[in-house]
Every structure is written in C-alpha cells, then in structure tokens.
Amino acid sequence: IRQRDQSFSEQSGPAALECEDRHTIEEQCIMERAKGNDKPLALILLRGLPGAGKSTLASLLAAREDAVLSIDDYFTDPRTGKYLFDHTKNHLAYKHCEEGVHKAMEEGKQRIFCHNVFSLDWEMEPYFTLAKKFGYQVHVVTVENYHGKKNVHEIPDEQVGKMREKYKMKL
Questions:
Q1: Phi and psi of 167, rounded to 5°?
Q2: Distances in whole angstroms, Cα of residue 14 to Cα of each of 7, 17, 21, 129, 136
Q3: Ranges 34-38, 76-80, 164-168: which has the least confidence
Q4: Residue 30 confidence (pLDDT)
Q5: 105 vs 16, higher pLDDT
Q6: Could you give the CA distance from residue 90 to residue 103 in angstroms, rounded to a whole number?
C-alpha cells in the first residue's frame, strides 16, 4: 500500500491510501495521455449572452472527435431538435452539462467545448475544478453579438437585458 500523490486528487486528501496496482480514473487518464500524446487537453468555455453565437462558434471550431456540450442539450428533444425550455428545470440542465463534461474528460477527449451564458464567474467554477482534476487547460472565450442577430431560443429582450446587467468579465 502506498500513499496517493496529492497532485492526482486533492479531494481525497494526502492521507488517502490505495493499492500500488490500482489507479483512480483520473490517474489512468493522465497516464494514458502521457503516452505519445503531445497535444494539451483543452476545455474551451464559450460564454456570452443569448444570440451571441456561442453554439455556432462551437460547431465551427469543433472537430468530429471533440465533445460539444451545453445546457441547451438538456432542453432539446433529440428526435425532433425542438428546443423546449423550462426555467424550473434549469438547475437540472446545468448539472446535466457538468456531468457531460466530466464524462468527456474521463473518456480523455482532446478538446471539449462547453457553450453556456456563464454570466457570472461562479457558474464556471465546477468546470475549472474538473479541468484541474483531469489535467485540462481552460480557455474562456467571450462571444459577442457583432452580427446583430436575435437568439434562436426566443428569450425576451427584457430577460437578455437582465443577463447583460449582471454579466461579469475578468480582463
């Protein structure tokens, strides 16, 4: 039995013990990536107000093998593609997106695109934590609406205005 290196899992603490021939999922991911893969793992968080073009940009930048996730996925019917937003389930949508990013990291996806409004810094914190846990570089990209189009989810201008007022950027 050996003491687990803190750099692999801070949540378990320095006193966590495990057998030498067993590894946590995070350790396995890190070891696999070290074998001949020189490209860094990247989590790209695309943030911006509704209608800015986050989904469009994610689809333009992502390769077929990349993971692309959003809270919108939770509200989109996979059969019809119809978007059915229900604000009472917003917390479930955020959790669903976070779990999708976690799964993509466990699978060792090279690049993960996550596009959400992220108007406040704390909304990105779970993703920063996951990135640290799995060894991903985080890139936060703010998408602005220079094209002047409306959001496709029919969010009222008044609601978008409220989001704009609370939107915080770290420059």
A1: -65, 125
A2: 9, 8, 18, 18, 22
A3: 34-38
A4: 56
A5: 105
A6: 20
Among the listed residues 74, 98, 100, 68, the one whose alpha carbon sits nearest the alpha carbon of residue 87: 74
Distance CA 157, CA 162 (A): 9
Alpha-carbon distance of 139 to 42, in angstroms, equals 7
- Strands, E, within 8-122: which ranges? 17-18, 42-47, 67-69, 111-116
Starting at the earlier edge strand, list the strands of the sheet with 137-142.
67-69, 111-116, 42-47, 137-142
Residue tagged 């189009």 (tokens): 149
pLDDT category of residue 20 using cuts at 50, 70 and 90: very low
The two three-digit tokens of residue 147, written as one number:
């094209």
* pLDDT tens digit sequence for 123-132: 999 999 999 9
